[in-house]
Every structure is written in C-alpha cells, then in structure tokens.
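Sequence design from tokenized structure. All designs in this work follow the same two-part layout: the structure record, then the generated sequence. An example of the structure record is given first.
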C-alpha cells in the first residue's frame, strides 16, 4: 500500500451475466459516472461491487482488487469507481460484458481537494480521455496544493482491440449528455434527447422497410 493517503488505478470489472449487464449499455450507467463500492461476502469470499447512483450493483472486481479495496475500506477511506468504458467479448462462451473503472480511494480528511479532483477526472472520462490516476507522492502533493484543480497530463490508453471483442461505450454520446441535462432539470434538453432517439428508431424502421424486411 502507498504511503500517501490516496490510491488510484484502472481496474477491470466483470458482470454476473449477460442479462444483468444489459443496463450497462443504457443511460443509467454513463461513462464518467461515479459509482460507490459495496462489499458482498459469499461462501467466505468478499467481493467489491460497483453500485450506481440508482442503487443497482453493476459489476464486480477480481479477488486481488477486492482485497486491496478491503484494506482501504478498513482504513476508513472513501472508495469510488468511475466508469471508463464498457466492452463485450464473445469468449469465454456464451460471451461476457465487462469494462474498466478508474478507482479512486482517499483519506476523507482530504475530501475537499479530492472531490474536486475526482470531478475533473470524471469530466475527462466523459470525453473519452483516460487520465492517469496513479498519482504518486508528487502528483498527490499537486492535487492538495491546487485544492483539486490540478490535472494529470499523462493518459492511459484503451486496451488493444482483440478478435471477438468490442468496446461498446468509451465516452458520452450527445443523446446521453442531453438526457443527463434533463435529469438535472433542463427539461428542454430531456425532450430533445427523446425526440432524437425516436428519430433514430424511425430512421432504422424506414431503412428496414425499404429493404423489404417489413
């Protein structure tokens, strides 16, 4: 464990089943969303899960990551996971949805600066940029000195494409941004987003009809 009161990394998460993962593709789980971390123990194994803002458990981390997060929980740290991307792989059979999250854990005594820093990381993830979150002593000092406004210049690349795998969500789409504005009270954006989605559906139906499907 690091000597500084902070821990950050990108970690892979998995989903319980393809059915349970369907919501990851929807508007309730957006790239850049901040998830809380909840621990569930089954058969003596304690696993860290990502819980979205609507209270749903969306994905779980591997045993190694879960153990490390348990240590930071025991220290009283604030634990958060920021959705970076969602992917699908055909193997192992019958296929699986998975993704990566930027994990940020910190001593709550530094909450003011780290909340601002986390918000800035989330904003960059929304645009498809993956900033380095493994700060080290110098990076952490810059975060505290700037009260969270300092931004890492280094970025982390997306995993290389592999046969049978695809990245499904790597940034927020325009329609997702409008839906989110609607949730924040901008009803005009919310209405426009739904009209936009309906137009896409209508266009797809017209295309299928033109091809003789209907």
């Amino acid at each position: 464990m690091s000597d500084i009161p902070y821990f950050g990394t990108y970690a892979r998460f998995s989903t319980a089943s393809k059915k349970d993962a369907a919501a990851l593709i929807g508007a309730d789980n957006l790239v850049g969303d901040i998830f809380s971390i909840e621990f569930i123990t089954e058969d003596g194994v304690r696993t860290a899960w990502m819980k979205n803002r609507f209270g749903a458990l969306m994905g779980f981390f591997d045993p190694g990551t879960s153990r490390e997060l348990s240590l930071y929980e025991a220290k009283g740290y604030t634990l958060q996971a920021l959705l970076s991307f969602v992917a699908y792989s055909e193997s192992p059979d019958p296929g699986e949805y998975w993704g990566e999250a930027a994990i940020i854990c910190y001593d709550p005594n530094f909450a003011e600066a780290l909340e601002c820093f986390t918000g800035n990381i989330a904003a960059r993830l929304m645009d498809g940029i993956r900033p380095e979150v493994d700060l080290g002593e110098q990076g952490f000092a810059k975060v505290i000195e700037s009260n969270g406004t300092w931004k890492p210049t280094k970025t982390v690349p997306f995993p290389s494409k592999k046969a049978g795998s695809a990245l499904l969500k790597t940034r927020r789409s325009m329609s997702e941004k409008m839906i989110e504005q609607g949730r924040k009270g901008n009803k005009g954006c919310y209405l426009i987003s739904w009209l936009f989605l309906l137009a896409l559906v209508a266009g797809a139906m017209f295309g299928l009809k033109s091809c003789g499907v209907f």
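Residues 204-208 have pLDDT under 50 and may be disordered. We note this feature because it recurs in several other targets discussed in the main text.
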